[in-house]
Amino acid sequence: MKDIVFCSNNCFVLYSAAVQAKNSENKESVPSLPQSPMKDRPPKAFHQYSNNISTLDVHCLPQLQEKVSPPSSPPIMFPPAFEAAKVEAKPDELKVTVKLKPRLKAIHGSLDDCRPPSKKWKGMKWKKWSIQVVIPKGSFKPPCEEEIDEFLKKLGTTLKPDPVPKDYRKCCFCHEEGDGLTDGPARLLNLDLDLWVHLNCALWSTEVYETQAGALINVELALRRGLQMKCMFCHKMGATSGCHRLRCTNIYHFTCAIKAQCMFFKDKTMLCPMHKPKGTHEQELSYFAVFRRVYVQRDEVRQIASIVQRGERDHTFRVGSLIFHAVGQLLPQQMQAFHSSKALFPVGYEASRLYWSMRYANRRCRYLCSIEEKDGLPLFVIRVVEQGHEDLVLTDTTPK
């Protein structure tokens, strides 16, 4: 067999056929292994290098082909900003919206990491809630406050304070009980003992005028005239608001004039429906609320005298926090010892007052003050009435 000599890196390599025969004998002596699924490797060859140093066995390595890189893609050119703004979306383009579902969270180390969670807790720890709103057809009338109060009262879910006692005070002009609406008759003003009048009923009377301080003058004069005049609307006595048209005899209560659609003006004049102008008027007054201080001018000394002169009284006379229960009396033989240069001390006088307590700094109690007679001289008695304590009685010969 011939020998083949290769020249590589300035070295001579001798390849002989005898070496191949030797390799085949070695392969037969070694038991064969099962073939692996991998691809067969290239056969090994022993090479002998002849040089001046030594003889070496070298394995022949397979030569790998160089991978050719793909050609580089050309750079992408973006249009300028002003040109991109001009580009409009075509109506025929298809828009696709992708919704990503949240990934299921699994407990680390469990066997059901890849399985969806079971619904065994449905109805126990979570429920699916849905709402349905039903709008009734046609007009819907909301319930009024009285219906709501009655419904809450049936349910028994609210706690209400005791009802306020009914106000039985009656206006001597319009004969209506209690305070009126702010944009109407308004509040009641005291005219005399147990005699009341609505603010606007008195203010819109023909004779009454208001001073700069807020006093209403000639209210008693209007009351005496109203007792003889009949209202054109309700046909009851007490009408004091007349039409300001010359020779017009129509007269109304203030509340009846509003119901009859009379026209009120800012200069405190009124025209009945027969004489009022058609349409709206620039001087027309449509709001009657009075928030300023207004009172009825009266003679308080004469009013107190009339109270004292009356025998049995069914009314309470109060000045501030002082309430009079009995005025008392003085006999001729008591006049010399039961008075001073500034005051009288009638025997039987009794009054009560609510004032600060002598025991507690933040409470009030009731003080009953009375005048008695002892050894021909006045005796002043104060009884302290306080809840949780016995009455304390203080007496002395002088009021101080």
From TrEMBL:
InterPro entries reported in the protein's UniProt record: EPHD, FYrich_N, Znf_RING/FYVE/PHD
Main location: nucleus
EC number: 2.1.1.364
Keywords: Chromatin regulator, Metal-binding, Methyltransferase, Nucleus, Repeat, S-adenosyl-L-methionine, Transcription, Transcription regulation, Transferase, Zinc, Zinc-finger
Signal peptide coordinates: none
One GO MF term attached to the UniProt entry: zinc ion binding
One Pfam family it belongs to: FYRN
Top-level taxon in the UniProt lineage: Eukaryota
GO cellular component, one term: MLL3/4 complex
Protein name: [histone H3]-lysine(4) N-methyltransferase
Annotated PHD-type domain residues: 168-276
Keyword Transferase on entry: yes
Catalyzed chemical reaction(s): L-lysyl(4)-[histone H3] + S-adenosyl-L-methionine = N(6)-methyl-L-lysyl(4)-[histone H3] + S-adenosyl-L-homocysteine + H(+)
Swiss-Prot/TrEMBL GO biological process terms: methylation; positive regulation of transcription by RNA polymerase II
Location(s) in or outside the cell: Nucleus
